[in-house]
Each structure stands twice: as C-alpha cells, then as structure tokens.
Design a protein that fits this description.
Blueprint lengths: L7 H52 L4 H15 L2 E4 L8 E2 L5 H11 L4 E5 L4 E8 L2 E8 H5 L6 H40 L13 H49 L2 H26 L7 E3 L1 H14 L4 E5 L5 E3 L1 H18 L4 E7 L3 E7 L36 H11 L3 E6 L5 E8 L14
Length: about 450
C-alpha cells in the first residue's frame, strides 16, 4: 500500500492536511492548557475566600454546643464538610505535586499551619485551617476542582469545524495550482501523438507563466519547422518533376526499344518517389469529410491494380457509410498495396470487414515478413526496411509510404499495425472508428 502519493497534486494536498492538522491540534492543546490554568487559579481564589470566611465564622463561635450547630449551618450554606481536628486527627492523604501551587497559595493566605489533603475515594479536597487555636478539616467536593480537566466540547467542535473549512479551502487552492500542470501534461501528450494543441494560457504564478511561455514558443518553433520542411519538400518535388517529364519524352522518342523500357521504368519509379514526397509535404489532407462506403472505395482501388495487370485480390463485406476523407483513404489503401507489391510481390489480398466499433482494412502478402524490431520504426518518415524485407525489384524507396499510412490513420482517429501473417508474410491492419472523433483534428507531421 502506497502512503506517499505519486502526483504533485496528491503530495500538496497531503502536506496541507498535515499542516492544518498539526496547527489545529497545537491550538487545541494550548487552549486547553490555558483554560486549565485559568480555572485552577479561579478555583484557588474562590476557595481562599470561602476558607477565610469560614475561619472568621468559626472563630466567632466559642461555645461547644453552639459551635456544633453553627458548623452544621456553615456546612449547609457553603456545601462543605467541616470536621474538628480533635474528632479526626488525620483526614485524607497529602496532596501531590499537581496541587503544589494551590497548597502554596493557601499557606500564604491562611498561614503556615494550613495543610492540603485529598480523599479521592470520597471525592473530597480537604484543607486544614486553624480557627481560634482549634484545627478544622474542611472538605470541598473534588469535582469542582477537576472541572477544568474535562474535555471542552465546544472548543473541540469549533476546532474541528475550522480545520475542516481550512482543508476544503486548501484542497480547492491546491487543485487550482495544479490545473496548469495538468493542462501542460495533456498538451505534451498531444504533441507526443503528433497533434497540435492550442497554446497554453500565459497567466497565473510566474513559474507557470514562464513554463507555458516556453512550451508555446517550442510549439511555435515546431510548427514553423513543419511549414519550412513542407515548403522545402514541395519545392524539390516540383522542380524535379519538370525535367523528369522532359527526360521521359526524350527517351520515348529517341531511345531504342531494348533500353527504352528499362529507362521508362526507372523514370516512373523516380516519379512515384517524387509523388510520395509531394503527398507527405502536403501534411493534413485538405479534402472535405464525406460519408464513405469503405468497402466500395477499397474495391475501386483494387480494380485499378487489376486493370494494370497486377495480381491484387479483394474480399470484403458491405460496410455502413462513415465520415472520412475519401482521397486520403484511397491513398492509404494504395500505399499499403504498393508496399506489399514492392517488398513481397504478388499476390496481395485486400480485405474489408466491419466490427461493432470499427471498420477494419487489411492488406496481406506472402513475403519474408517484417522483423518485430522494425515494425514501429517503419512507420516513421524516410525509414527503409532492413535486409530481412528488401524490395523485390531492388530499387530503394523513399521510405514515406507507411509514414503516410500512419499519418492518415491518425487523422481519422484510428490505429495502424504491422503483424505477422499466419503461414508467412505480413498483415497490415488499419482500424478506423465507426464515428471518428478526431477526423478533422490538426496533426503535426512526424519526422
């Protein structure tokens, strides 16, 4: 069982609870001690006055019979018990150290012959006084003195109430202080997922302002780097496509048939790589979100490959229309098929099926497979496979196909996995939510 909280908010709350509890306990104990001292002094002053009055009354009575009646009357009036020392030489036990202060005050006020005793069994505080040469034991109810040791219920109730109010206020204040940190943690998580969170508010304590300002500056720099990279890639791709087109035209018009086919194939591969650069440089797809029949769209993509003479097979069930970007989704399926054809060769199987919460697109091949250590790395831009899965045609790719698939999948709030296929090969699986909440969210490109 963990007693020390892991979060900063929990530790601040625990610290405030401990401080408030210690302060409340100290206040209550100090109040209790002060109250006890005040009551003890008040008790002593009262008893001294009563004993002085009793001694004066006893000194005024000299006749024995009259003294007994007078003593009985004084007992009733003062609520005490008076016993002559001659009738009972010893009464009770000497008082302990807790009553030393009262004993000293009684001797100062009534003389050195005064003695202070207690009889706890009878509940009496007993004082021996001298009146006209005769000693008397005067017993007071002990509960009158012990009253100051009882728990002050009202003070305890007020202490608990004030402590509870302070704890509620401390909890609210701590939650207010921790709110900017929770917002920052959420924003950092979104950046880690490739999203672009809104700027954090630069208000509150100076440390939070400085932290949020630094985060906002970093976010702005990331966006600027992304824009610069997209502009650079778009410029390079655009500048390369024009000479490629002229080169292809020249080859087709002037080269002999034996070399023309190979050169045109190379130029087409270069054009495909440049096209991937352009797709990646565009970043977020700008097309509108539409209700898309994923199965029908996948079947159309497969039909284009079959028309081109590629062995790509389709199997799927009807899917309900879901809000997606059709152009981006078409590019996603095409990139998966291109990747399977390039690295594994035909045949390639495309399957679309429906689950209660998602639509699943699978592209499977019978190639050498992908090492588990390469799976996540291949989703990053400009990353190529290891020797375990090289291109069937021997031409290196740009390393953007799977990165584009990962980006489009995240734009639609889905997941993209590269799995080992039963019987050998690779299974690329994309799961798209039936109602994607993040379909239109801005995304920071990785790489």
């Amino acid at each position: 069982m963990r007693l020390w909280p892991r979060s900063l908010f929990g530790r601040m709350v625990l610290l405030l609870i401990a401080v408030v509890a210690i302060a409340a306990a100290a206040t209550f104990l100090i109040f209790r001690e002060d109250r006890s001292a005040l009551l003890a002094r008040q008790f002593g002053d009262t008893k001294i006055v009563q004993l002085q009055a009793l001694r004066a009354a006893l000194e005024a009575t000299s006749d024995t019979e009259t003294r007994r009646e007078h003593t009985a009357r004084l007992e009733r009036e003062y609520g005490v018990r008076i016993v002559p020392e001659l009738d009972r030489p010893r009464f009770g036990a000497p008082a302990g150290s807790s009553l030393a202060g009262l004993d000293t005050r009684l001797k100062e006020a009534l003389g050195d012959t005064t003695e202070l005793h207690v009889a706890p069994g009878r509940g009496l505080l007993i004082v021996k006084i001298d009146a006209a040469g005769t000693g008397y034991w005067v017993g007071f109810p002990l509960r009158s003195f012990d009253e100051h040791d009882e728990m002050p219920t009202r003070a305890l109730a007020w202490t608990i109430t004030v402590a509870a109010l302070l704890l509620v206020a401390a909890y609210a204040f701590t939650r207010y202080l921790a709110l900017p940190l929770r917002e920052l943690a959420s924003a950092v998580t979104r950046v880690g997922r490739g999203e672009a969170p809104p700027p954090l508010p630069e208000s509150g304590p100076s440390e939070i302002v400085a932290l949020n300002h630094g985060f906002n500056t970093m976010l702005g720099n990331l966006r600027q780097i992304e824009r610069d990279r997209a502009l650079l890639l778009a410029g390079i791709s655009h500048d390369l496509r024009t000479p490629l087109a002229r080169l292809r035209l020249g080859v087709e018009m002037g080269a002999d048939p034996s070399t023309r086919e190979g050169m045109v194939s190379d130029i087409e591969e270069m054009d495909r790589i440049v096209g991937q650069f352009l797709e990646f440089a565009r970043g977020e797809d700008a097309s509108a979100i539409e209700l898309v029949d994923v199965a029908a769209l996948a079947e159309r993509v497969v039909a284009r490959y079959r028309t081109a003479g590629k062995e790509v097979r389709y199997a799927g069930t009807a899917t309900p229309p879901v809000p997606l970007r059709p152009t981006a989704l078409s590019r996603l399926i095409a990139n998966l098929v291109d990747n399977a054809l390039a690295y594994a060769g035909p045949p390639v199987d495309v399957t679309v099926r429906t689950r209660p919460e998602a639509i699943v697109i699978e592209v499977a091949d019978r190639g050498p497979g992908i090492p588990a250590a390469d799976v996540e790395r291949l989703k990053l831009p400009f990353t190529r496979s290891s020797m375990a899965r090289s291109r069937a045609d021997g031409v290196p790719g740009a390393g953007l196909g799977l990165a584009i698939v990962e980006r489009v999948t995240r734009q639609h709030g889905g997941t993209f996995d590269l799995l080992a296929r039963d019987g050998g090969g690779t299974l690329a699986r994309v799961e798209l939510p039936r109602a994607p909440a993040a379909a239109a969210s801005p995304v920071l490109a990785r790489g």
